[in-house]
């Protein structure tokens, strides 16, 4: 088996209105017309896989200076993040005795602030992303419209550092990246173009890393519940249905994007799955 270990790296804790992740979590009724929004913890994670051919990183978390001016005021207010100095991908690599140059591939689920914030530290890596996602993000940037979950300063850094992008075309449903690591192209849903990873481990079995294709177990259902934030709701539903099929086919464990309950049960780096 070509994968030796998978580390789950904690990238800090976002707090946000639960409605971002699960649509209409609190609904008014005849007696209670005004309901309060629910302010919730939303853990950020990324995964580091030790493969015989090199290190693969799935997502990169938030930029370490997210709350120190890196993010716009709107992002800092909507989704404030707290990142401990021992958290985040850079601290994890150092703790595990690796340098950033050791990472050969980065696979990005999408380009939002809490997944693509540290790309610039890996300018020697091949950065695999959905063509639709990069195109959609750059279009937003060029038009200077509302960037939502995309960060202008992150994008400027990618351009400055001349990131080595490797695009997955819309028609390319799957790609075997390395032995035991398969890229899954889910298409539009949460954002313009979402991707996941199927990781095979000798003792622990198969893992489906689905990121924000499924934020929490409430979204996964059944029945499927939509998030408050979705670029394409039909695409979102089709993606979740496909993930259910993949889970059965590969008898895989599904790791959600931001599920606090699941997060508390995970072994975090330096512990690992092998
Ligand atoms: Zn996210």
Can you tell me about this structure?
The chain is of the alpha/beta class and 274 residues long. The chain has a single domain, classed as Metallo-beta-lactamase, Chain A (4-Layer Sandwich). The chain is built from 8 helices and 12 strands. A hairpin with a 6-residue loop joins strand 9 (181-187) and strand 10. The model has no long low-confidence stretch (mean pLDDT 96). The structure holds zinc ion. Residues 112, 114-115, 212, 257-258 line the site of zinc ion.
Tags for this entry?
alpha/beta; Metallo-beta-lactamase, Chain A; seven-stranded mixed beta sheet; five-stranded mixed beta sheet; binds zinc ion
Task: List the topology elements.
Layout: E1 3-17, E2 39-51, E3 54-58, H1 66-70, H2 73-78, E4 81-82, H3 89-95, E5 103-107, E6 126-130, H4 131-143, H5 152-161, E7 164-168, E8 174-178, E9 181-187, E10 194-201, E11 205-211, H6 217-220, H7 233-250, E12 253-256, H8 260-265
Parallel strand pairs: 3-5, 5-6, 6-7, 11-12
Antiparallel strand pairs: 1-2, 1-4, 2-3, 8-9, 9-10, 10-11
The structure holds zinc ion (ZN).
Which small-molecule ligands are present, each listed once?
A: zinc ion
Element-level helix/strand string: EEEHHEHEEHHEEEEEHHEH
CATH overall fold name:
Metallo-beta-lactamase, Chain A
Residue share in β-strands? 25-35%
Number of contiguous helices: 8
Q: What is the mean predicted local confidence, pLDDT?
A: 96
The appropriate CATH architecture is 4-Layer Sandwich
Number of domains: 1
SS class: alpha/beta
Largest sheet: 7 strands, mixed
CATH homologous superfamily annotation: Ribonuclease Z/Hydroxyacylglutathione hydrolase-like
Please list the strands of the largest sheet in the order they lie side by side.
4-1-2-3-5-6-7
Total DSSP E strands: 12
Report the C-alpha radius of gyration, rounded. 18 Å
The helical percent reads 25-40%
Characterize the overall form: globular
CATH class: Alpha Beta
- Separation of the first and last Cα atoms: 10 Å
């Amino acid at each position: 088996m070509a994968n030796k270990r998978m580390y789950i790296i904690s990238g800090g804790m976002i707090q946000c209105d639960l409605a971002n992740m699960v649509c209409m979590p609190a609904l008014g009724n005849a007696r209670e017309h005004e309901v309060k929004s629910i302010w919730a913890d939303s853990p950020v994670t990324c995964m580091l896989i030790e493969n015989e051919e090199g290190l693969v990183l799935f997502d990169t978390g938030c930029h370490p200076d997210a709350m120190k001016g890196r993010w716009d005021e709107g992002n800092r207010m909507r989704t404030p993040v707290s990142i401990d100095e021992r958290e985040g991908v850079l601290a994890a690599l150092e703790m595990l005795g690796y340098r950033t140059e050791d990472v050969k591939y980065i696979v990005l689920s999408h380009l939002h602030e809490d997944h693509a914030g540290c790309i610039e530290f890996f300018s020697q890596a091949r950065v695999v992303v959905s063509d639709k996602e990069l195109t959609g993000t750059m279009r937003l940037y060029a038009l200077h419209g509302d960037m939502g979950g995309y960060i202008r300063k992150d994008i400027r850094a990618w351009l400055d550092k001349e990131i080595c992008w490797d695009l997955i075309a819309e028609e390319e449903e799957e790609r075997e990246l390395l032995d035991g690591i398969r890229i899954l192209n889910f298409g539009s849903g949460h954002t313009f173009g979402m991707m996941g990873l199927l990781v095979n481990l000798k003792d622990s079995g198969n893992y489906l890393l689905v990121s924000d294709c499924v934020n929490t177990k409430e979204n996964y259902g059944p029945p499927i519940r939509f998030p408050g934030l979705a670029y394409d709701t039909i695409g979102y539903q089709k993606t979740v249905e496909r993930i259910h099929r993949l889970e059965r086919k590969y008898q895989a464990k599904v790791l959600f994007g931001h599920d606090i309950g699941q997060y508390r049960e995970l072994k975090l780096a330096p512990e690992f799955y092998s």
